[in-house]
Amino acid sequence: MSEQYEYFVRVSPGYTVDRPANLWRRNGDSWEYLSLLTWEWRPVAEPEKYLPKREALHSVTAERAAELEADRQGWVRYWAEYGSEASWRSGKAPYSVVRRRSSPERVHDEAFMVTNTWETTDRVYDHFSARSDELTHLVEVTPDEAERLLQQVRGVSGATAL
Description:
By secondary structure, the chain is an alpha+beta fold. The chain has five helices and ten strands, in the order E-E-E-E-H-E-H-E-H-E-E-E-H-E-H. It has helices at about 45-50, 60-70, 85-90, 125-130, 145-155, and strands at about 5-10, 20-25, 30-35, 40-45, 55-60, 75-80, 95-105, 105-110, 120, 135-140. Strands 4-3-2-1-5 form a five-stranded antiparallel β-sheet. The chain has a five-stranded antiparallel β-sheet with strand order 9-8-7-6-10. The longest helix has 12 residues, at about 145-155. The relative contact order is 0.16.
């Protein structure tokens, strides 16, 4: 990473400066964000329209930005998926894992399917919407826990690799 850039993290509800929502950088008036979908820096065409609010951006050092950029799992949130809250409360095992990457260009939710692949899903969005009582139950887990669960449930190793 070049010293010509100033680096910032965006903090939004559910995120902290230590585990931020996004990574941004600025060189003069030119802004870029780290895409959490392609893992590349992308320019912001209209900063006045697309930049997060100033109060949501927190300055970080180039070294910290490099650490954050290298830690892909740090940008992903995982949930164990249960058939219902009652299943979870009774100690039943989850049947799958879902994950979310909140990239500046879009939020991308995926579920680990019976085909042992990640596929786009609405289940995370639906869980946090007003209809959540009609759906499966999600319990947030760490990336390591998600990996362990997928090994147990599907017999697959390395499923959380990005």
